[in-house]
Amino acid sequence: MFRIGFGFDSHSFEEGKPLVLGGVLIDFPKGLKAHSDGDVLLHALTDALLSAVGEEDIGQLFPDKDPQWKSAPSSLFLKSALERVSKKGYEIINLDCTLIGDEPKIAPIKGKIIQNLSLLLGIDRTRISIKGKTREGFCQAEGIACFCVVLLQEKKA
Ligand code: MG
């Protein structure tokens, strides 16, 4: 038995805030505007995992009006989603994330991000795909968006 989940998130840039992508601190002059650390990749991935097992979404579980999530590391949201996936009897087969934005370039940093996701998720890095796409003039907003799809399978008894 398989389940598929899809997640999306986007945040605009904020000057002087650290940029965190996939739980990795990126050397870049701008961060992402958000109540939490603004980790657009972990937010999309968390939502993909939650929706794959029919749980409420990240905004319902961790409301941005709730002071306890102010500047929270998004790995907390991911950990909670993973626990829900496991409790429902599923494990990750693979995941595929596409980051959209003109900067920073994803190719030079994706190895580090995949390595960190591999640790956070407890899966081999060969099961994780990250790629970057530039906007090509499509959208005027200055920031980063992320699409993420995840495939789960029922854990063997
Ligand atoms: Mg978000």
> Which regions are unreliable across 5 or more consecutive residues at pLDDT < 50?
none
Average pLDDT value?
Answer: 95
Major sheet: 5 strands, mixed
Would you tell me the structural class of the helices and strands? Answer: alpha+beta
Strand arrangement, largest sheet? 4-1-7-5-6
CATH architectural name: 2-Layer Sandwich
Beta-strand level of the residues, as a percent range?
25-35%
Which small molecules are bound? magnesium ion
In CATH terms, the superfamily is 2-C-methyl-D-erythritol 2,4-cyclodiphosphate synthase
Q: How many separate structural domains?
A: 1
How many separate helices? 4
End-to-end CA span: 13 Å
CATH topology: 60s Ribosomal Protein L30, Chain: A
H/E topology pattern: EEEEHHHEHEE
For the secondary structure, the number of strands is 7
Please characterize this protein's 3D structure.
This protein is an alpha+beta fold and 157 residues long. The protein has helices at residues 40-52, 58-61, 75-87, 110-121; strands at residues 2-15, 19-21, 24-26, 30-32, 90-100, 128-133, 143-154. The chain has one domain: 2-C-methyl-D-erythritol 2,4-cyclodiphosphate synthase (60s Ribosomal Protein L30, Chain: A, 2-Layer Sandwich), CATH 3.30.1330. It is built from 4 helices and 7 strands; from the N terminus they run ββββαααβαββ. The strands form 2 sheets. The chain has a 5-stranded mixed beta sheet. The protein has a two-stranded antiparallel ribbon with strand order 2-3. Strand 2 and strand 3 (24-26) form a beta hairpin. Helix 1 runs parallel beside helix 3. The radius of gyration is 15 Å and the shape is globular. The structure holds magnesium ion. Magnesium ion binds next to strand 1 and helix 1.
